[in-house]
Structure to design on (388 residues):
């Protein structure tokens, strides 16, 4: 950055390596948060494939539904559920950093967010279960 | 002899760089005697006074106020006056200059980039109108002071910059301390300088360059929480973009 202060004439600049994130456990946790976002994208593709199969007709949609009930698909969904739950939690963990200056303990903000989401998820599952029975 | 007064010896690897030789930096090992209350800074001073007078490092207050003695201690940005050799013994200790800054000599880094960034955020009160001294101080309530107080505790030690991978990868990023100080003044009820600072805050190298790693707040020795200052301003920056901030201020909301 240019400005009124001028840099020292002779300095040595250390390069940032491609493995900087392996050098500190804090950065590993950060990268885990960022990497699990990829699985949110993958699950979005699963849902999108359902919408496309629905547009292609009843038989395609039924084939897609049948595919979802296979053992491989169930395991895949369980793994995705775990990774997405972790990803969601990581964002609640940093939520206190995004709020205005308020007189509430950071842990209270995190717990409230997690409990609200967990409660809402239970309600949605219950409603869907009731509707589809 | 109690553990408090017992003298032990620890090996310290210090990164050395001599700009005159032009050779790349290398580690040099020193054996330093220490007691229970010997800080890393006192260890460095022992090296300078008794083992190697050519070692260069910055320090001043010895009590975590001046922000001069920041170094990487075993890869963690810390104030060397605030860190004790006893916590590393019997293992070796590695001391590097603060990450992401050019090295001038040994542990002394070039702070110019930060100084220019600090300058760019106008880190001073911009009052609505100047008033003569005879009219007294600008007053504010304790509640108004709470809005900025912890950000005003920054000592410019630059540990947060050494902790920020985004600054390492993109040195044009305004960075944690400068943005925390930008917020310190914007959040002050006596200040009306939002528009004067908004170009820096709203730019790509302002708050939007931060990806909320959050390590800056972890290493801050004064609990300034730069990550909080930056990320709450992503909301403010968005509101500013859509003109909501201006609207809120015209109807009397905000500070």
């Amino acid at each position: 950055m240019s400005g009124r202060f001028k840099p020292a004439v002779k300095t040595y600049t250390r390069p940032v390596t491609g493995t900087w994130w392996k050098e500190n456990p804090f950065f590993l946790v950060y990268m885990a948060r960022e990497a699990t976002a990829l699985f949110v994208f993958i699950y979005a593709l699963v849902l999108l494939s359902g919408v496309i199969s629905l547009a292609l007709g009843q038989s395609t949609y039924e084939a897609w539904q049948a595919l979802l009930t296979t053992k491989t698909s169930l395991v895949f969904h369980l793994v995705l559920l775990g990774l997405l739950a972790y990803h969601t939690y990581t964002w609640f963990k940093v939520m206190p950093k995004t709020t205005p200056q308020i007189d509430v303990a950071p842990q209270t903000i995190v717990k409230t967010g997690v409990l609200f989401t967990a409660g809402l998820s239970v309600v949605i599952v219950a409603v869907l279960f009731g509707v589809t029975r | 002899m109690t553990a408090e007064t017992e003298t032990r010896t620890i090996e310290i690897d210090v990164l050395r760089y001599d700009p005159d030789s032009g050779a790349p930096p290398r580690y040099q090992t020193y054996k330093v005697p220490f007691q229970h209350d010997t800080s890393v800074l006192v260890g460095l001073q022992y090296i300078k006074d008794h083992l190697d007078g050519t070692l260069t490092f910055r320090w001043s207050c010895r009590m975590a106020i001046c922000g001069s003695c920041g170094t990487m201690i075993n890869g963690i940005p810390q104030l060397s006056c605030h860190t004790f050799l006893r916590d590393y013994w019997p293992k070796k200790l590695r001391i590097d200059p603060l990450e992401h800054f050019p090295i001038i000599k040994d542990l002394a880094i070039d702070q110019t980039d930060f100084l220019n960034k600090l300058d760019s955020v106008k880190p001073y009160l911009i009052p609505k109108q100047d008033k003569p001294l005879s009219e007294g101080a600008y007053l504010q309530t304790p509640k108004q002071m709470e809005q900025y107080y912890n950000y005003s505790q920054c000592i410019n030690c630059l540990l947060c910059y050494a902790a920020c991978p985004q600054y390492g990868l993109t040195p044009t990023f305004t960075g944690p301390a400068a943005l925390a100080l930008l917020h310190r003044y914007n959040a002050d009820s006596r200040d009306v300088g939002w528009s004067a600072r908004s170009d820096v805050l709203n730019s790509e190298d302002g708050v939007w360059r931060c990806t909320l790693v959050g390590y800056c707040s972890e290493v801050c020795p004064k609990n300034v929480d730069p990550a909080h200052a930056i990320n709450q301003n992503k909301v403010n920056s968005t509101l500013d973009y859509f003109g909501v901030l201006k609207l809120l201020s015209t109807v009397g909301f905000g500070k």
User: Anything to note?
Assistant: Chain A has one domain: 20-122. The interface with chain B takes residues 1-8, 10-14, 16, 20-21, 23-24, 26-27, 30, 34, 94, 96-101 of chain A (CB under 8 Å). The first helix of chain A runs from residue 25 to 56.
